[in-house]
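FAQ
Q: What does a multi-component entry look like?
A: The components come first, one per line:
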Amino acid sequence: MLTNLSASATREVIEVIGAPVFVVSVEAEGGFRFVAVNARLERRTGLSDAALRGRAPHEVLPPDLADRLCARLTQCVEHARPLDYEGHMDREGERQHFEVTLTPLVDGAAAITGIMAVVQDVTEVRRAEKRLSGTLARERELFRRLAGLSSDWFWMTDAMGRLSPFDPDGSSDSSVVDMETAGQTWRSLWDPRLPLEDLPALEAAVAGRRSFRDLIYPQRLKDGRARVVRVSGVPRFDPDGGFAGYVGVCTDITERRNDQRAQAERQKREALGQLAGGLAHELNNLLQPVVSLSGRAGRLVEPAGAAAEMLADINAAAKAARDVVRGVMNFSGRGVADSKPVVLSAAVRQAVDMAAGMLPSDLYIERAIEDLPDTAEVQSADVAQVVVNLLTNAADAVRQGGGSMLTVSLAAAAQNGRRVAVLRVRDDGPGMDAATRESVFDPFFTTKPVGQGSGLGLSVVHGIARGWGGDVKVISAPGDGAAFEVIVPLVADARDMERQARDMAG
Amino acid sequence: MTTTILLVEDQPLVRKAVRGALEDAGHTVVEAADGADGLDAARAAPFALAIVDIWMPRVDGIEFLKEVRAIHPGLPVIVISGGGPSAPLEVKAHLAQAHGATEVLFKPFEDEELLAAVDRALSGGEAGD
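Then the predicted structure of the entire assembly, as tokens:
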């Protein structure tokens, strides 16, 4: 055993070990002395066997290194078993890292008389690790900053399809980790009031652990708003190849999609308007001789005869046709209009009174018409037509849905920096689905049985509102009633105009 | 009083109907099938009144209005319009009035409406003299 050998013999034995090694003796009084070191250790540490042999650590090593070494050696003796530790020493300004294994050397009486230390230089390994972790940290920071810059959401799911925070240390900002969605699945985020769109395709891709790209579906946010998102993802696997979930990116395309829809809607209406305008022109020209000639022929025949009656019917039919054409032209914004500023709230109030007389008496019409001093470039007759058409439509809806309440309101608002009035007609009828909402202003669109509605009423409202430079929109959902909002641009305070007129007259 | 009226209208059936109404009321009518023919007729002879469609091939009613002023500065003009595919009716009507149309009638109109407008145009012209 090493304990019986001389220092020189010990050195010869440890010289054959393929690692730097030193041996210390455990002194009776508790201290340690170097017995021998091998050439590998000499090369690694710059300490020579000759300089160390027979010396205590504190005699030959810097005090801090000697302290650390003696503490480990003492620990090894106390526990009486091999001990691994990682230590370091500074040599010529450079820190060297070592992994050291201390093995107690026992004599025949089972007393620990020495310790052999096998030293492994791990300086390069530690330096490489430090460089790597620095690079990783920089790359993570770079990614985090890029992700923070993006308006997209980056997401990650676990193997169960639940969304989990993207960044394991939780230091990311909200655009990287949407913490609100944590624990949710794609299905639980889906808004059940809206179509599934690509959600089945997304779920099929996830079930097959395939990557997917640009799938679209409507999501419900915590605050109840619905957002349409476009989502792409790739499966991720843990180091043993097990499925670990997905990682991907998600883009909110609600606005873009709304814009596209609105644009398509505008184009459709413009095309319809062109068509209606052209058609109306042709029909008006054809109706002119019918109206004119039937009138004149009526004066030529015997007044009370059958021919006179037929000609009167032809004339009446031609005028009815003219009214239909005017309705279509109003829709297309090509109607006959001579707009003079009228005080809108007065015109609306009058129109509601008139419309109320035409509706079933068991309907309750709640009025919230603000006294706006402003005028609008509209005709009272058009205001009446808009109010009557909207109230008639609302009354029909209420009758279908078993409700009994209509609300008419008028209030000022600002829209794109201009003053507008919002005329709102609300019913508690059955409401509309998305398809109905999209078509509700199309001419000849009706949900009523054949023969009970021309399908022109709301398209006429749309045409008149557009002719005013305003707009009309519908807010509705199935089971939730419907509200039509007509936006009317306001021109001036009527009192200002009166004042101006008086000033000019004076 | 017999007056000679220039009727500028590209639709033959409208021309025929309007002409009939005017002749029944005792007026003499000269027809032109579009604005270009109408201007030729205006250069060839004087008229008490012109009745002009807006939407016509070659020279339309607005062009006719602009150019007829150079020939007969005080000529009263009634515009009759069925509306057109290219511009809203009211815009056309405003344009017609801006270019000196006495009145704008929208088709289809009754003979009585037309004759009343003719009377107004003719008496307005006399009152102005």
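Q: Is there any commentary attached?
A: Sometimes. For this entry: Chain B touches chain A at residues 11, 13-14, 16-18, 20-21, 24, 55, 82-86, 88-90, 93, 106-112 (CB under 8 Å).
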